[in-house]
């Protein structure tokens, strides 16, 4: 007889960066699935699409927290969560974890926090945009704030 796979216990949430798409982290997803075929490896989709990463960290982080909560609800067997964010995705992930964190239990969305990893995430903010010397500083600031909107201000 064919053995049924055990229910998933681990959740990995992968979060893309500014102007990105879930597919940006598809290779990492494949690697994690190969390493642990029973895990849920979720590519966050809530901040993909035109201009979705430009309305601020609070908005994007809140959307991500809601998406993570929905995934957890669909898989009641989950016990542990790991969140991996690339660039702005790391900032969104940090904000979402804060929203999902329960101090009394130390849990994130009701799950034990396993790992929080970020790559190329500007945890200390970002400097001026543009190519130094090629674009006047005033134009750099105007362009950055106009294009990235609330996200760059936060």
Automatic annotation (TrEMBL):
<dbReference type="InterPro" id="IPR007751">
    <property type="entry name" value="DUF676_lipase-like"/>
</dbReference>
<dbReference type="InterPro" id="IPR044294">
    <property type="entry name" value="Lipase-like"/>
</dbReference>
<dbReference type="InterPro" id="IPR029058">
    <property type="entry name" value="AB_hydrolase_fold"/>
</dbReference>
<protein>
    <recommendedName>
        <fullName>DUF676 domain-containing protein</fullName>
    </recommendedName>
</protein>
<dbReference type="Pfam" id="PF05057">
    <property type="entry name" value="DUF676"/>
</dbReference>
<feature type="domain" description="DUF676">
    <location>
        <begin position="10"/>
        <end position="127"/>
    </location>
</feature>
């Amino acid at each position: 007889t064919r053995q049924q796979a055990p229910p998933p216990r681990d959740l990995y949430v992968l979060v893309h960066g500014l102007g990105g798409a879930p597919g940006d982290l598809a290779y990492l997803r494949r690697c994690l699935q190969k390493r642990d075929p029973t895990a849920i490896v979720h590519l966050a989709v809530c901040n993909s699409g035109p201009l979705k990463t430009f309305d601020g960290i609070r908005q994007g982080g809140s959307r991500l927290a809601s998406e993570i909560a929905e995934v957890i609800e669909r898989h009641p067997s989950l016990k542990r969560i790991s969140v991996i964010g690339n660039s702005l995705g790391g900032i969104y992930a940090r904000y979402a974890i804060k929203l999902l964190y329960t101090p009394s239990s130390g849990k994130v969305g009701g799950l034990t926090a396993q790992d929080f990893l970020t790559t190329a995430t500007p945890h200390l903010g970002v400097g001026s945009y543009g190519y130094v010397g090629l674009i006047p500083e005033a134009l750099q600031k105007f362009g950055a704030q106009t294009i990235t909107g609330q996200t760059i201000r936060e």
